[in-house]
């Protein structure tokens, strides 16, 4: 089903063969340099899935794990915080103190670069062979996860970041056709104006900084196209160009349609505004579908979804994945968890609850929701690019610099020219 997938280049991704590994990096998963007992009687799993649909997905995965490993105690190391910011800070402290969890969640892609360079995660390539994952994960996905011939994580899912969610009734009240697809950002502006003028409701709900960066990346993608967007990460697109200026101007205009309390909210709050009919549109990854379903909403009667205007035919990719940390106190327990993560049973249970789609290519589409079936089709035929906000496009330091620049701009701390200058400086400081 997915053999027709067209991946575009992602120089910032994990397929960069020249990535240098730290001298302390270990050889493979069969020889974990942990000094741990090797005991499989427990496993501490560190995630940021602490609430909502994310916790539902984790709970479903744990249920499969418990069935497959009845003698292994699951220890939930979840830390609350949107997009994992709080969890990542705590994780870094633990890794630096040589106190790693047995496995931790990370976004597949460039986000893993720092852990690899620091020698903090083991090569799990042998587990791909042991678990038969090379035969069930798409070959181009495995290639994307490979660094200098080694693989450092096992993905549990595939998510799409460039999705618009909209309230059907509020669109109708605004004189809009809920089934309409907006080909360009300018077309979308017309719809946003209609919501504002005819209902007085929030045209576009938004939350804290990482959701703003998620919005920003989709606008860059819409205005620059897939090739131009990828060029931001490999140096072929100039951050100082007029094309980027135009995209940032569109982002600035979109911010003007959003709720003023955005910085005090996280993504579930912004999504809930659409569910409740207090906002018309929201840009969020497809984990949001689980929130609509949990609220008992049905598409298209209650809500509709579409690619961000200007990005139809492009799949803005991210994946949650799990690692085997160097120094894991229970590496055998960690390997048991990784086996469940990669298993068909684990991926079906997890993704049905979380709203994402399996990384495996042997899952049956009919086992999933209408939205997820559409995502499977898109992932199989669209051009794939890597998400900035979710760790796939740029290393952590670069992503953090963009987040800081975005927060400064959206909170009124700078003008458009200053925002672009900050983004240029971030690229100059971090691009390899």
UniProtKB/TrEMBL annotation:
Pfam families: SBP_bac_1
Signal peptide per UniProt: 1-22
Keywords: Signal, Transport
Principal place of residence: other
InterPro entries for this protein: Bact_solute-bd_prot1 (IPR050490), SBP (IPR006059)
Keyword Transferase set for record: no
Compartments (UniProt record): Cell envelope
Keyword Thylakoid among UniProt keywords: no
GO cellular component: a single term: cell envelope
Function: Part of a binding-protein-dependent transport system for a sugar.
Record family assignment: Belongs to the bacterial solute-binding protein 1 family.
Protein name per its UniProtKB record: Probable sugar-binding periplasmic protein
Organism: Cellulomonas xylanilytica
């Amino acid at each position: 089903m997915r053999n027709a997938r067209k991946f575009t280049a992602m120089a910032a991704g994990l397929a960069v063969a020249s990535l240098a590994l730290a001298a302390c990096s270990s050889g493979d998963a069969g020889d974990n340099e942990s000094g741990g007992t090797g005991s499989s009687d427990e496993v501490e799993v560190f995630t940021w899935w602490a609430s909502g649909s994310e916790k539902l997905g984790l709970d479903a995965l744990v249920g499969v794990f418990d069935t497959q490993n009845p003698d292994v105690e699951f220890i939930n190391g979840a830390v609350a915080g949107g997009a994992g910011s709080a969890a990542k800070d705590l994780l870094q402290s633990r890794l630096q103190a040589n106190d790693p969890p047995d496995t931790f969640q990370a976004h597949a892609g460039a986000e893993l670069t720092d852990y690899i360079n620091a020698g903090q995660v083991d090569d799990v390539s042998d587990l791909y062979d042991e678990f038969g994952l090379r035969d069930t994960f798409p070959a181009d996905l495995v290639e994307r996860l490979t660094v200098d011939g080694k693989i450092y994580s096992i993905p549990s899912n595939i998510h799409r970041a460039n999705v618009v969610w909209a309230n059907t009734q509020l669109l109708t009240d605004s004189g809009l056709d809920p089934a309409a697809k907006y080909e360009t950002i300018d077309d979308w502006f017309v719809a946003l104006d209609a919501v504002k003028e005819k209902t007085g409701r929030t045209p576009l709900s938004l939350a804290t900084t990482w959701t703003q960066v998620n919005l920003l990346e989709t606008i860059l993608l819409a205005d620059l196209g897939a090739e131009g967007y990828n060029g931001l990460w490999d140096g072929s697109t100039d951050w100082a160009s007029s094309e980027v200026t135009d995209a940032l101007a569109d982002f600035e205009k979109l911010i003007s349609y959003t709720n003023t309390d955005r910085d005090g909210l996280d993504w579930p709050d912004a999504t809930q505004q659409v569910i409740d009919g207090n906002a018309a549109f929201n840009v969020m990854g497809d984990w949001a579908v689980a929130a609509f379903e949990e609220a008992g909403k049905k598409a298209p009667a209650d809500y509709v979804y579409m690619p961000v205007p200007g990005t139809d035919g492009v799949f803005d990719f991210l994946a949650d994945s799990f690692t085997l940390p160097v120094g894991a106190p229970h590496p055998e327990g960690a390997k048991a968890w990784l086996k469940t993560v990669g298993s068909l049973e684990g991926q079906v249970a997890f993704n049905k609850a979380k709203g994402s789609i399996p990384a495996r290519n042997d899952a049956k589409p009919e086992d999933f929701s209408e939205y997820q079936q559409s995502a499977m089709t898109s992932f199989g035929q669209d051009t794939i690019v890597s998400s900035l906000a979710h760790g796939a496009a740029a290393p952590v330091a670069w992503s953090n610099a963009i987040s800081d620049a975005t927060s400064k701009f959206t909170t009124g701390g700078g003008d458009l020219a200053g925002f672009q200058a900050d983004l240029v400086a971030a690229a100059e400081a971090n691009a390899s």
